Amino acid sequence: MFYSTVKVLLTPVCFLLFWPVLKGRENIPQTGPAIFATNHLGTGESFLLVALVPPQITFPAKQELFRTDTFFRRILAWFLRRMHQVPMDRSGGTAAADAMGSVYKVLADGGFVAIHPEGHRSPDGRMYKGRTGVARLALTADAPVIPVGCFRTRFTRKWLPFPWLYRPELRVGEPFRFPQEMRRQFLDAANHTESHTVLRQATDEVMQHIQQITGQEMVDEYSYNPKGTGPGH
After folding, report:
1. Over the range 15-48, which residues count as b (16 or more CB within 10 Å of their CB) and which as e?
2. DSSP 191
3. 3-state DSSP call for residue 184?
């Protein structure tokens, strides 16, 4: 109910202020489960998905947004939870997988999830290496992936004295599933190395589907490195 109310209020405001464009609406299934996988250019993608895409979507969001050490952070965390966002460790690997329990339940119940495989916003507009969480979700839940290309979703000033979105656009591609043989390889993997190999292959496939929509240059490294050695630092 809370999500629906926010959506009803947000959608006309979004159209009035930003004139967004949604292409590929016919590729959005009426029933789930399904995973929307998008490139990550700015902060506009999440609320545009809420405003423009019909089904209710659950978002794994960076865990820093759920801190409760101040009054305003407690309010933000409350709002995000009511909007079906769940905290996620973006460092990848086991920590990220452990944080995704509630997301698996959404998919098991036939719901929709949206995720930015890059984890962090692109620092320069190029497409960076995807984290494996999206592949882990898709393979474990046997859910289709819906690639979404996002354009002009980063708030910029241009001629205005404050940040603004200028005609943002979402292009929804055709859903695809990973082959059952790949899923069996992942589920039957004898060790971490074998499972990671399958996850890496599946994640790269997701990124290629998104890149075919956006045309971005692809970079074979992460957009953010927790140790401070990657781009964005």
Report:
1. eeebebebebeeebeeebbbbbbbbbbbebbbbb
2. S
3. helix
Torsion of CA 179, 221, 148, 196, to 10 degrees: 30
Tell me which residue has tokens 């809370």.
2
CB 189 within 8 A of CB 117: no
Taking only the tens place, the pLDDT of each residue in 64-83 is 777 777 888 788 778 777 77
Q: Maximum CA pair distance of the chain?
A: 57
Neighbours of 102 (CB within 10 A): 13
Q: How many Cβ atoms from other residues are within 10 Å of residue 71's Cβ?
A: 8
> What is the reported pTM?
0.85
7-26 pLDDT tens trace: 888 899 889 988 999 999 99
Number of Cβ within 10 Å of residue 189's Cβ equals: 15
Spatial separation of the C-alpha atoms in residues 153 and 166, rounded to whole Å: 8
How sure is the predictor about 84, in pLDDT bands with cuts at 50, 70 and 90? confident
Q: What is the pLDDT of residue 90?
A: 54
String of b and e for 201-223 (b: at least 16 CB within 10 Å)? ebbbbbbebbbebbebeebeebb
Helix 2-18, helix 44-52: angle, nearest 10? 110
Residue 85 predicted with pLDDT over 80: no
Look at 102-111, 160-169, 181-190, 191-200 and tell me which has the smallest mean pLDDT.
160-169
Query: Phi and psi at residue 59, in whole multiples of 5°?
Result: -115, 125
Task: Tell me the two tokens of residue 79.
Answer: 């709002």
